[in-house]
């Protein structure tokens, strides 16, 4: 018992120290960067607002959501707080400005997060289609993966192609050098990441796992995650020469050895430092590598930070 208490005390000290590290960084470095003061007048149509003819795919800083379809996961007030990473529906995330969705599924096509399940993938698809029907120039990256520890849904690639075929931008390295206008009326880059089934092939309507990469670390320590994000981003080529999407996640994850296990208070340790992170990307010379930036519980300020930097790139200010 004594060693357990001692361990918990040390863990709480480490978390407190790391939270202070980010506060100090904010106070000394601030959160300014090119485009920091830009706010889209219509987040639902922010890509259209930047002029699709001018926006190259590789200049976009894509605001994304982590574990996107968890707004109704588990049992309210019982298991949901341990797995819920978003409070908004897929449709409302897109309306708010998210353009990258992270969907985890299991064999029966139910969306899941670990052992907890929620609605069918059909709900996600219908929300995406509804959003696309109400907009004209917004491009979405839809990542669907089989959750760790689960089996692939049978014939799932066929399902995705049947449901989304008219919107799908086919797997093609040339996409990275095109503008939004050149891709329209196609609207979805769909990355399918099965665990055991064959990966989508070159030229397929679906994109393989190698086109969406990240370096996720499992920690609830905010400064550790912040520094890891910077380190791994520094190792990537600039977006101008990259033929894959690279994601940084402004999140931390509850740990079993810590008494705070609910997602929201844990990820809140890093949630408010998205603009500080972009500031540090510029300070350290990594800003030309930032591309997909994802978060838990997405809000307007996070979207505006990503859109603002995109605007600065499009206008030649970053």
TrEMBL record:
Name of the protein this chain belongs to: 1-phosphatidylinositol phosphodiesterase-like protein
Pfam families from the UniProt entry: PI-PLC-X
Record-level GO BP terms: lipid metabolic process
Endpoints of the signal sequence: none
Gene Ontology MF, one: phosphoric diester hydrolase activity
Lineage: Eukaryota, Viridiplantae, Streptophyta, Embryophyta, Tracheophyta
Native source species: Quillaja saponaria
Phosphatidylinositol-specific phospholipase C X domain boundaries: 57-193
């Amino acid at each position: 018992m004594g060693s357990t208490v001692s361990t918990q005390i040390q863990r709480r000290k480490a978390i407190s120290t790391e939270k202070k590290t980010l506060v100090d960084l904010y106070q000394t470095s601030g959160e300014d960067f090119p485009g920091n003061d830009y706010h889209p007048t219509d987040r639902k149509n922010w890509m259209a607002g930047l002029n699709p003819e001018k926006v190259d795919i590789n200049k976009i800083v894509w605001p994304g959501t982590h574990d996107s379809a968890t707004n109704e996961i588990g049992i309210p007030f019982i298991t949901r707080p341990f797995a819920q990473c978003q409070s908004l529906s897929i449709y409302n995330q897109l309306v708010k400005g998210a353009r990258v969705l992270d969907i985890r599924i299991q064999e029966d096509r139910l969306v899941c997060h670990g052992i907890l399940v929620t609605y069918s993938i059909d709900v996600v698809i219908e929300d995406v289609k509804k959003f696309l029907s109400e907009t004209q120039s917004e491009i979405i990256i839809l990542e669907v993966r089989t959750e760790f520890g689960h089996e692939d849904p049978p014939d799932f690639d066929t399902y995705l192609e049947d449901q989304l075929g008219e919107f799908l931008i086919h797997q093609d390295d040339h996409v990275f050098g095109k503008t939004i206008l050149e891709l329209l009326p196609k609207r979805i880059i769909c990355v399918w990441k099965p665990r055991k089934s064959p990966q989508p092939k070159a030229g397929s309507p679906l994109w393989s796992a190698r086109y969406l990469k990240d370096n996720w670390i499992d920690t609830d320590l905010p400064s550790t995650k912040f520094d890891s994000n910077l380190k791994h981003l520094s190792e990537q080529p600039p977006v101008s020469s990259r033929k894959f999407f690279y994601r940084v996640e402004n999140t931390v994850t509850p740990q079993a050895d810590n008494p705070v296990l609910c997602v929201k208070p844990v990820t809140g340790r890093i949630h408010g430092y998205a603009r500080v992170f972009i500031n540090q990307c510029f300070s350290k010379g990594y800003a030309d590598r930032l591309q997909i930036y994802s978060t838990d519980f997405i809000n307007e300020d996070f979207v505006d930070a990503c859109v603002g930097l995109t605007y600065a790139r499009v206008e030649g200010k970053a």
